[in-house]
Amino acid sequence: MLQILITNILLISINFGAGNLVSKLLKIRIRRVSVMALFGMTVITFLQTCIAFFVPLNLVVESCIAVPGLFGLLMFIKSKNWKILAVLKYLNFWFFFFLIVILSVAAYTPYFYDHYSYYLPTISYLKAFGFIKGVASVDLLLGQTSFWHIYQAGFSNLIDTNLKINSFVLILFLIYVYESRRTALLLFFPFLLIFLPQPSPDLPALILALIVVNEVIGGRNNILMLVLALFAFCIKPVVFWLPLLVILESLYTRAFQYRFLIPVIVFGFLFSLKNLLLFGFPLFPVSIIDFNFPWKPSTELLTYSSQIGLMKSYDMQYGYQEILTFNQWEKIGHWFTAGSKSIFNVLVVLCLLILGWLSFRKQDKIYALVFLCFLLKFILIVSFSAQYRFFLDLYAITIFLLFKNLEEQKTIVVATMMSIFVLVIFSCPDFVKNRFSMGKWMTGFHMSQLIKPDHLESVKLLNDEKIGNFSFFVPRDPLAKDRFPSLSIYDLRLYQYYSVFPQRSENGFVQRPLTKDEKWKLKQIIDGLEKSEK
Known about the structure:
This protein is mostly helical.
């Protein structure tokens, strides 16, 4: 906890300073500490993304980012513009209670499977190499490379070595709640705690969505909100509806200016360029607008990915060929009944109905725009992979609009009780571990967490292998993919099935079919790993 507290003090200082420095240069007026720091975070991530095209996000880059941020903080102190610190008079016992809860939960062991299969490998390769052309040809997930993991990688050499960046953005959200006096937002606090131990991009995407929607509904839509909405999109493309909402609202209120197009073009270009270099297509994981780059993943693996996405829509209860035999009504029926997670699919439709009802009842165009944006998202998402996890923002915004005027006392009671419940689950995780697969990495509370966060101990025994001109590490522990390039036994089996394999090419990677000798070599590697597992 102590290490996380120190990390967050440094991050707040650097990001607030960066936001102050750039807002002065661009003559943008920002009146809240949280929004200033979020703006600084956006600017820093943009710079880190540009830098990653050329050099690794190492200690030198981290220092070069931190120094201007601290200089911006000194500029603020020298200006003595203390009005932005008005939030200090609103802080009470509950603010510090929730702050302690954040530090406590963040100190637990990462337990999302994605942390080990996607987050950690992505951060590791960015720190060591920066962007690598065709990295998706080594591991398809690495082609995603969210802006959030670029941001995390840029601060993970010295300031946040424990990868607890999510605690920072949740603290900013807590500050924003007290600055905006919208205490109903605390209802989401217990749910957001679930994402804290690992750098999940879902948490910043949800927080930015809640903040932007609250500002837009409050009549405070401006170019800054558009920048934050675009940042959320670059973190998690499924929140594409958010910048769309900001633009539509500005058009409706006749506040739209052509300069709004500048951040749209700039962020859109950088986002697409990053995807083209890493994945070979402008939007991960969709293989449309094909420029036929040689480093794009093989057609077989792209087909496999789309098939898995479709099967996940039905909670993996049906095979791909079986799903293809469904008629339209069967698709709808199975989507509502397939597996225990189908309840979330029902909630998706329920939330849409609630948003439609609210827009009709309120007779407010803003509510109608929110409903239309989510309806568009629903249509697009359902068309390729209707997974409930793509609709977390829909659940959150619907709840917010329903209860945004809830009394402060009631909100505090609910948020406190639920936060304590989450803290107890993390401290005594046996109930979760016995019922949910992702809970198997929870380790409970250790006294050492009061000083430094806990982490999962793994046996990092690596084999150094080579197939063709591609040398790679093979971790005996599938979770130990923190060295690049690493291929777990699951990756190797996938390549064996489709008879393709990564190869080095022009400062990057491509995929090509395996030769007869390479198939035999790959089989030997897999057999050796399977024997070591027994």
